[in-house]
Amino acid sequence: MDRLDKKILRLLQADSTLAVADVAKRVGLSTTPCWRRIQKLEEEGVIKRRVAILDPDKVNTRVTVFVSIRTNSHSTEWLKRFSEVVITFPEVIEFYRMSGDVDYLLRVVVPDIAAYDAFYKRLIEKIEIRDVSSAFAMERIKSTTELPLDYMVFDKETRDA
Amino acid sequence: MDRLDKKILRLLQADSTLAVADVAKRVGLSTTPCWRRIQKLEEEGVIKRRVAILDPDKVNTRVTVFVSIRTNSHSTEWLKRFSEVVITFPEVIEFYRMSGDVDYLLRVVVPDIAAYDAFYKRLIEKIEIRDVSSAFAMERIKSTTELPLDYMVFDKETRDA
DNA sequence: GGTGAAATTAGGCTAAC
DNA sequence: GTTAGCCTAATTTCACC
User: N or C: more exposed end of chain B, with fewer CB within 10 A?
Assistant: First the structure.
C-alpha cells in the first residue's frame, strides 16, 4: 500500500459509487492500474464491503442510546450467552467489551424512549443483567463510517497480511 | 414505502454491489420497478450514500476509545467552539451530545494507546476541556452500519418527508 | 402500481503495447 | 504505466397488463 492506495481509499470511503475512471482521474492514474489497485485492496480485505447508508430518521431510528453494563460477578457461561443474545438484537449497532469501570458498552438505535424501554424489556427477558445504565443521545453532532487514514503503514507487505 | 422497499433496503444495507437485477430477483420484482424504487429511495434520501467499509486493522486503527466529557460550567461560546474543533479530528468517528451525567460522548479510533495519548494532547491543545474520561474497548463484539428496519413506517408519505 | 422487451450508454474488465 | 476495445449491466423508453 502506498499514497495512491490511500487516496483511492479516501475517495471510496466517502462515495463508493464513483466510477473507476473517476477515481483514476482524481488520483492521477489511468483507469487500468487504478482498477487493479482497487481489486487488490478488495482481495486483501482492506476494503471489506460496500454498503448503502440509510437515513436513521427515514427508517424511524432517530434515538441513539448508549448502554453501559457491569458484569463483575458473572460466570464465564453467562458471559458467553450474554454476547450471543445481545448480538441477535438488530437494534444493537455496536457492542464492545471494555476495560475499566464499565464491562460492556452497547450502542442501540430505536425510534423513541418508549421503544427503548420495550427493547430493554425484551433484552432482560432473555438474559438476566445486573447493572445496566442507559444514556440517551440528544444530538448527533458527527457520525461517519470513514476511518482516519493518517495512521496507514506503507510497506512491502500489509502490516498484518 | 412498503414491504418491498424494506426488502430492498435490507439487501443494499448489507451489500450495495448487488446488481439491480439481483435485487429484483430476490425481492420478487422485475428489474424496471425495482430500479425505480431504488431511485426513489435515493431521491427521498432514505438511502443517503453508498460507501466502502474498510478493515480497521488494515488501516491501523485497531483501538476504539470512548471519551466522556462533562462541560457543566462552560459558556455557549465555548460549546460552539468545542463542537467545531472536535469535528475536525478524523479520529473522531462519532460525536454525540448526551443527556444525563455525561455531556458529550466521542468514539475515537487510533492505532494504539500511545496514539490516543497523542490525539488527546492535540485535542486539549486546541480547546481547554475540564472533565474528560476515556474508556478503551478491549474487543469489538459487534459493529455494523445496518439499521434495524423493523420500525419502518409504511404510509402514503414518508414519515417526515 | 406491475411486466417484459428493446435501445442506449456508461463503465467494468481485458488485451496489447 | 498507457490506450483501445469488448461486453456486461445500468439506465431509459416503450407497449401492455
Answer: C
Q: In the 10-69 stretch of chain A, whose C-beta falls under 7 Å of nucleic acid strand D?
A: 29-33, 37
Q: How many whole angstroms separate alpha carbon B26 and alpha carbon B20?
A: 10
CA A136 to chain centre: 19
| Cβ contact A111–B151 (<8 Å) | yes
DSSP state of B107: E
Q: Cα–Cα distance between A148 and A133 in angstroms, integer?
A: 30
* Number of CB atoms found within 10 A of residue A56's CB: 18
In tens, the pLDDT along B53-92 reads: 999 999 999 999 999 999 977 789 999 999 999 999 999 9
Give the residue-averaged pLDDT of B2-31.
Answer: 96
Looking only at the bridges linking them, the beta strands covering B47-54 and B131-143 are: unpaired
Length of chain A: 161
> Cα–Cα distance between B30 and B22 in angstroms, integer?
10
CA distance A4 to B22: 33
Q: Find cell 412498503 and name the residue.
A: B2
CA of A110: how far to CAs of B10, B23, B84, B120, in Å?
17, 27, 27, 31
